[in-house]
């Protein structure tokens, strides 16, 4: 392909010799990306070390990369350091696999997230939530403070175990969550150094910690598989994975691939839902007008009873609260791809091996689509306002063939939990507790979210 624009780069920050913009990304990635978008616009170029990065912010270019020309954009990078840290934990699971393996596994896994199938899972979401609410009653009675972010991580882990694998992982939830927190921090430090060819080694203490994370997660995943085998097959996702046979060879999924898929689904299924719920409680507690409207909807539709899948279409405001939270704190805050062959975007050549970055977090803060974007206002997701926006200006679950396989399941889970907890308790923020985003692979609240719990109606569960 001939070079367009004489091989010139789109506008963007120059950064420092050798390291490019590394220090700015390192210090505060979210501010960096929002700042460069505000300064340079829809197509931005910068370097981190020798790695060229194209940061795209226009819905048409995003559609081009993720949907229309998706086969020219790989999920994996060619960075050995990045791959060496991701590889041992995620292996060849759905989040990271490519080509024929990805296609086969996606075909196998996708039916488990079909709307009819997920409808049957709603009681596996509401039952662990009822158990959590029971334990909260004692805490509320004593007037104690709790970290609601941690509670949400534990709840979403239990739900992943029940819904996808039909296994109770309550006993492992703290160990898994702690290991994930440490693992993500180490992983993040490495992503931020991505592309640097200086002799930056994995310090041995960090390596040891990472190995411990790996062992803890492996142990949990193998326990899930063993427990599932003990119970025998049911109609859960893990059973379908175990029973699936290749159409041509008749072979089943190997042990290693099974481990990888369980690990990928466990991580993708809880490390997203947990932080989203945490931010929902934070936003509701700091916006009493929105909270009141939510309570009114819950009272009129549910009147204190436990929600079911069939109630969800009648809870539109509950859904709008979730959508607005995902605009501001999308756990998948960046999506990246490696360019396979030279391509053209916005009149510029995007060379092979470059990285293309797309950020749902930055898209959610663009003044062109969102008036006063920092304001939390679920009304933005009313049908009339949604119809006025370009479809690809809001993509918390990505788009195209590699979009989130669990999107409908995630929305159902969030809506059921919000409806249940919202009827039973009002979490109030503890004054003076710092709220800060920790930019990991997802967006966790760095210091948790400390609240006191205030019971609403005894009947609501
Ligand atoms: C609020 C919740 C969630 C959000 C915001 C979210 C977001 C995303 C995003 C942005 C991607 C990557 C899209 C891309 O690279 O183009 C993704 C992929 C994925 N998500 Fe989710 N996700 C959520 C919940 C879940 C849940 C509950 C599950 C499973 C139980 C799940 C499983 C996956 C998997 C397996 C992939 C990889 C799909 C593939 O590459 O074929 N996610 N998700």
Detailed description of the structure:
The protein is an alpha+beta fold. The protein has a single domain, classed as Cytochrome p450. The chain is built from 18 helices and 12 strands. α7 packs antiparallel against α8 and α7 packs parallel to α18. It is globular and about 65 Å long. The structure holds protoporphyrin IX containing FE. Protoporphyrin IX containing FE binds next to α12, α13 and α18.
Descriptive key words:
single chain; alpha+beta; Cytochrome p450; five-stranded mixed beta sheet; three-stranded antiparallel beta sheet; 11% strand; binds protoporphyrin IX containing FE
* Proportion of strand residues: 5-15%
* Distance N to C terminus: 61 Å
Rg over CA atoms, rounded to whole Å, is 22 Å
CATH class: Mainly Alpha
Regions with little confidence, pLDDT below 50 for 5+ residues: none
Question: Sheet bearing the most strands, described?
Answer: 5 strands, mixed
Question: Considering the protein shown, what is the CATH homologous superfamily?
Answer: Cytochrome P450
Q: What fold name goes in the CATH topology slot?
A: Cytochrome p450
Structural class: alpha+beta
* Run of helices and strands: HHEEHEHHHHEHHHHHHHHEEEEHHHEEEE
Oligomer: single chain
* Overall pLDDT confidence: 91
Short overview:
With 461 residues, the protein is α+β, with helices and mostly antiparallel strands.
Give the helix/strand layout.
Blueprint (H helix, E strand, L loop, with lengths): L21 H6 L1 H12 L2 E6 L2 E6 L2 H10 L4 E2 L5 H11 L8 H11 L5 H5 L2 H20 L3 E3 H18 L7 H20 L11 H28 L5 H7 L11 H16 L2 H13 L2 H15 L13 H13 L6 E5 L3 E3 L2 E3 L4 E4 L1 H4 L19 H6 L18 H18 E5 L7 E3 L3 E3 L4 E6 L6
Helix pairs in contact: 7-8, 7-18, 8-12, 8-13, 9-10, 10-12, 13-15, 13-18
Bound molecules: protoporphyrin IX containing FE.
């Amino acid at each position: 392909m001939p070079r367009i624009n004489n091989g010139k780069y789109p506008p963007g920050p120059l950064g420092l010799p050798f390291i490019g913009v590394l220090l700015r990304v390192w210090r505060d990635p979210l501010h960096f990306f929002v700042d460069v978008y505000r300064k340079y616009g829809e197509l931005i170029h910068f370097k981190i070390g020798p790695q060229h990065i194209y940061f795209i912010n226009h819905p048409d270019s995003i559609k081009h990369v993720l949907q229309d020309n998706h086969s020219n954009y790989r999920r994996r990078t060619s960075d050995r350091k990045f791959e060496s840290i991701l590889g041992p934990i995620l292996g060849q699971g759905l989040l990271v696999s490519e080509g024929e393996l990805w296609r086969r596994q996606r075909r196998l896994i996708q039916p488990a997230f079909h709307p009819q199938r997920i409808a049957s899972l709603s009681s596996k979401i509401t039952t662990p939530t009822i158990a959590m609410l029971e334990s909260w009653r004692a805490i509320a009675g004593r007037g104690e403070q709790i970290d609601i972010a941690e509670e949400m991580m534990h709840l979403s882990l239990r739900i992943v175990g029940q819904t996808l694998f039909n296994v109770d992982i309550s006993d492992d939830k703290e160990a898994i969550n702690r290991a994930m927190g440490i693992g993500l921090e180490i992983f993040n430090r490495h992503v931020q150094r991505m592309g640097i060819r200086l002799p930056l080694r994995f310090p041995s203490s960090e390596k040891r910690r990472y190995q411990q994370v790996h062992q803890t997660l492996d142990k949990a995943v193998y326990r899930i598989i063993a427990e599932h085998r003990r119970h025998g097959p049911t109609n859960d996702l893990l059973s379908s994975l175990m029973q699936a046979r290749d159409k041509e060879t008749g072979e089943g999924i190997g042990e290693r691939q099974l481990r990888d898929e369980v690990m990928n689904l466990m991580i993708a299924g809880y490390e997203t839902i947990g932080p989203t719920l945490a931010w929902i409680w934070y936003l509701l507690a700091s916006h009493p007008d929105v909270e009141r409207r939510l309570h009114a909807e819950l009272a009129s539709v549910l009147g204190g009873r436990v929600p079911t899948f069939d109630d969800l279409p009648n809870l539109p405001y509950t859904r709008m609260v979730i959508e607005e939270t995902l605009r501001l704190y999308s756990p998948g805050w960046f999506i990246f791809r490696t360019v396979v062959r030279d391509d053209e975007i916005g009149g510029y050549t995007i060379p092979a091996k470059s990285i293309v970055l797309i950020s749902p977090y930055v898209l959610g803060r663009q003044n062109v689509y969102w008036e006063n974007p920092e304001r939390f206002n679920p009304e933005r997701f009313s049908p009339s306002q949604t119809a006025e926006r370009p479809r690809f200006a809001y993509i918390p679950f990505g788009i195209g063939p590699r979009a989130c396989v669990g999107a409908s399941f995630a929305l159902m889970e969030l809506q059921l939990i919000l409806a249940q907890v919202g009827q039973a308790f009002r979490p109030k923020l503890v004054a003076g507790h710092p709220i800060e985003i920790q930019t990991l692979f997802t967006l966790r609240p760095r210091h948790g979210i400390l609240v006191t719990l205030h019971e609403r109606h005894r009947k609501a569960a």
